[in-house]
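Box 3.1 A note on notation
Throughout this textbook, protein chains are presented in two layers. The first layer is the amino acid sequence; the second is a token string describing backbone geometry. Keep the layers aligned when reading.
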Amino acid sequence: MRKISLKEAISTRLAGKQVKREHLIIAALVMALIATVYFAWMYLQRTSPVEVIKSAVLPVKQPKWVTTIYGEGNVYLRQPRKVYVHNSQIYVSDTANHRVVVFDYNGRYLRKFGDTGDQKTRLMYPYGVAVVGDEILVADAGLMKVAVFDHNGNFKRYFAEDVLIKPVDVVFHRNRLYFTDVGRQQVVAVDLDGKEVLVIGKYGRSEPGEFYYPNGLAVTADGRIIVADMNNSRVQVFDTEGKFIEMWTGDLEKHEGYFAAPSGVAVDKAGNAYVADPLCQRVSILNRKGELYNAAQQVGPPEERDSLSLPTGVWIDDKQRLYVADYGNSRIAIYDLK
């Protein structure tokens, strides 16, 4: 065996250190590139990486997860968009399955409707649901209509066809039905006969009162109308008569926006707003001033490290339970707000 000289040994060691140094430099450059792409994407979405990180480590008490509904038997959810609760029954717009599925308060399957019958009376892409009296109204963005069913799920008729173009969400409040309409790019209120009584906003990309694909909405006890202005990455608030009050975005000058694509809104008894944002992978919780102070992300026990994926719809019932339509995971996550 040839004896290695001191000079050769030193050269070999230096060569090894050079290779390691080059590997470290390459790794650092790759990490820098990934970080640059990530922050650039967040900037384009007008969403702050700081806020996203804060939402995962907020020091205040977060909503307590209670249970998760996937479905049961032969009926399982697939990409649900909205969730609505009435008389302790949970209505889910099971959008990819072209139907509405109803569960009891404990998450047990009760019935489904909208996916049977002739083509004229079947749902296509159901979104918002509301129960008014003995009827169930379903805003179907695929049909571009509002379909009306009885409590057994039998189709009855279409509603406000002469007024609405492409309804997405619906809220019933004080004998009015409020719809977000992405065909009109407005919020439209109608009476129980389907007659238009109020129109809010117009198409636009920047000014107050302008909408670019308005999606979810909620009406507070005192009549404020809160709208998720999805493609404008903001939430807008109006009074009972549709007059603009304020908008919630975060501090855009510091690139610390709260939202990327808000798609669902609910309010609790205290007037706090819960905003489902699929691109931020969370439900942001804001006080009455529009200040972000909490978020719901965790699903299941903490040790499972499961979280929301593309949450699109939210609802809060009279027992202060928060329901989240988790589109990406095809399920409904339920939290206790008490």
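DSSP finds two helices and 32 strands in the chain. The first strand starts at residue 64 and ends at 69.
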